[in-house]
Structure formats: structure tokens, C-alpha cells
Write a structure and sequence with these properties.
The chain is mainly α and about 70 residues long.
Amino acid sequence: MYNTIYKKVKPLMESADAAEKLANDKQAELAIVLEKVRVIMEKVDALKAQLKEATDKKDAIEAEANEL
């Protein structure tokens, strides 16, 4: 009886182990991608700040030029 049950359960256990390994691998890949996205977002935020600073400087120079 144990052998009959084991024959049915063993493939299921192997499938579950394979699925768990795959899930762990994908989680690791996801962590790498999320880190890359975080770095890119930091660069985007820095560029947005730089653009705002340049735009503010341009507006100030244009205002000064209009006053003259």
C-alpha cells in the first residue's frame, strides 16, 4: 500500500520541488531587475533635478534680459 501511494506522490513531490526551485530562481532574477530599475530611477530623478535647475536659470536670464 505504501508503494502504491509513493508511486503517486513521488512525481508530485518532484514537480513541487522543481516549481519551488524555479520560483526561487525567478525571485532572484526579479531582485536583480528591481535593483536595475531603482538605479535607473535615481538617474532619472537626478536628470529631472538638473533640467529643473537649468530651466529656472534660463527663466531668470530671460527675465533679466526682458528688464533690460
